[in-house]
């Protein structure tokens, strides 16, 4: 840790310099008081050179030199923004060197990989957090409080649509990297249903569809899902790589409903439409730097020796559900889920607000998944 003005800062290496790391993560460190960007890891020398100059980073490493980065004494934590199939390996290697890990979602591709990651973190006494930024975002946390307070009565139905037009050739369309609608965007819908119902699904069903376009030759164009929760509650959602940009969810109770627009967005305003007894209240939540909130929260966990709420178990549960959903697509049948206990769930006490990014950075050898991103 570095000490600045009497305050300790957690020193981060960002591993993987794709679109999201460049556009969302790297610029966010200026909005944190306890986190410092000190190293970059990438196999693209032009990315490394230009981004290190832009952000004043002294230390850059290739993937081959990742171990050197971990052993350098320069970093306390890594933020892993690599393709999904690499999350497990790079997390375990960091943990084995005593480096804390903030790993992007999905946590990994299989339950077994998730369990290996959790074990490595436990064995080496390091913090492992999965990057569920919405667990710190006010609109989503207030939605949890609305449901929990029974303002809409007993919650019975969750429904969501999350769609975007993903450009041909994007990594999300590749099977080998753990692409596909459920791993990339369906995970948001699954996670939202879980935190709004404050429970775990017990049975799932899914069906996939594709329109025959070449870009969907390796992964499905879209997926529709049913999740059955205890107490006979149902969650449904459709996620797509071939639709216009939509990001909404609605939770319906016995006395009202809450509609959240731009629910899963990482930037821009989010909106609530709360309807009770036929009367609708609208609330707008201002744009905030969600990645700065995420780094701030994780650094606090490290500095205060607290376990992060979006833990490895949280990531494991979503991956196990996604695997069951793909099994359902293959078999055409409902698949039962082995319920795991969650001892922590997100609450409004976790809300962290940081000012929004001032400008959108120019991308270096990277592209947004869709033109609307």
Summarize the structure.
The protein is of the alpha/beta class.
The largest beta-sheet arranges its strands as 15-14-13-12-8-11-10-9-16
- Which segments are poorly predicted (pLDDT under 50) over 5 or more consecutive residues? none
What is the typical, i.e. mean, pLDDT? 94
What is the first-to-last residue Cα distance? 34 Å
Strand content: 25-35%
Q: Helix/strand-derived class?
A: alpha/beta
Shape: globular
Counted beta strands: 16
Query: Compute the gyration radius: what is it?
Result: 20 Å
Summarize the structure in words.
- There is one protein chain.
- The chain is of the alpha/beta class.
- It is 29% helix and 27% strand.
- The protein is built from nine helices and 16 strands.
- A nine-stranded mixed sheet has the order 15-14-13-12-8-11-10-9-16. Strands 1, 2, 3, 4, 5, 6 and 7 form a seven-stranded mixed sheet that branches.
- A hairpin with a 2-residue loop joins strand 14 and strand 15 (279-285).
- The chain is globular and about 60 Å long.
- It starts with a strand and ends in a 37-residue tail after the last strand.
- The model has no long low-confidence stretch (mean pLDDT 94).
List the helices and strands and how they pair.
Blueprint: E1 2-4, E2 7-15, H1 19-25, E3 35-41, H2 45-55, E4 59-61, H3 66-71, E5 77-80, H4 87-96, E6 100-103, H5 111-123, E7 128-130, H6 138-148, E8 155-165, H7 181-197, E9 203-209, E10 222-229, E11 233-240, E12 242-253, E13 256-261, E14 270-276, E15 279-285, H8 290-304, H9 312-331, E16 335-336
Parallel strand pairs: 2-3, 2-5, 3-4, 5-6, 6-7, 8-11
Antiparallel strand pairs: 1-2, 8-12, 9-10, 9-16, 10-11, 12-13, 13-14, 14-15
Helix pairs in contact: 4-5, 5-9, 6-7, 7-9
């Amino acid at each position: 840790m570095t000490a600045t003005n009497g305050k300790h800062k957690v020193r981060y290496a960002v591993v993987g310099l794709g679109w999201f790391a460049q556009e969302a993560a790297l610029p966010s460190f200026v909005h944190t008081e306890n986190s410092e960007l000190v190293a970059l890891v990438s196999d693209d020398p032009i990315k490394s050179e230009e981004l290190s100059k832009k952000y004043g980073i002294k230390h850059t490493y290739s993937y081959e030199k990742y171990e050197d980065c971990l052993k350098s004494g320069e970093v306390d934590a890594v933020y892993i923004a690599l393709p999904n199939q690499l999350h497990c390996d790079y997390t375990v290697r960091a943990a084995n060197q005593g480096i804390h890990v903030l790993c992007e979602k999905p946590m990994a591709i299989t339950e077994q990989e998730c369990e290996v990651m959790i074990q490595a973190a436990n064995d080496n006494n390091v913090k492992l957090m999965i990057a569920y930024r919405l667990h710190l975002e006010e609109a989503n946390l207030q939605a949890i409080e609305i449901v929990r307070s029974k303002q809409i009565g007993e919650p019975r139905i969750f429904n969501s649509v999350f769609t975007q037009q993903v450009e041909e050739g994007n990594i999300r369309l590749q099977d080998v990297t753990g692409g596909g609608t459920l791993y990339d965007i369906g995970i948001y819908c699954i996670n939202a249903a879980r935190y709004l119902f404050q429970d775990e699904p017990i049975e799932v069903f899914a069906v996939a569809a594709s329109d025959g376009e070449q870009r969907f030759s390796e992964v499905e164009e879209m997926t529709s899902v049913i999740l059955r929760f205890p107490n006979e509650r149902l969650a449904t959602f459709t996620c797509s790589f071939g639709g216009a940009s939509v990001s909404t969810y609605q939770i319906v109770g016995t006395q009202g409903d809450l509609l959240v627009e731009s629910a899963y967005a990482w930037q821009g305003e989010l909106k609530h439409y709360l309807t009770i007894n036929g009367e609708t209240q609208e609330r707008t939540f201002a744009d905030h730097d969600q990645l700065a909130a995420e780094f701030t929260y994780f650094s606090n966990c490290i500095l205060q020796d607290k376990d992060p709420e979006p833990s490895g178990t949280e990531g494991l549960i979503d991956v196990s559900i996604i695997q069951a959903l793909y099994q359902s697509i293959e078999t055409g049948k409902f698949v039962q889920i082995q319920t795991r206990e969650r001892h922590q769930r997100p609450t409004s006490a976790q809300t962290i607000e940081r000012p929004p990014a001032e400008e959108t950075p120019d991308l270096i050898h990277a592209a947004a998944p869709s033109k609307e991103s």
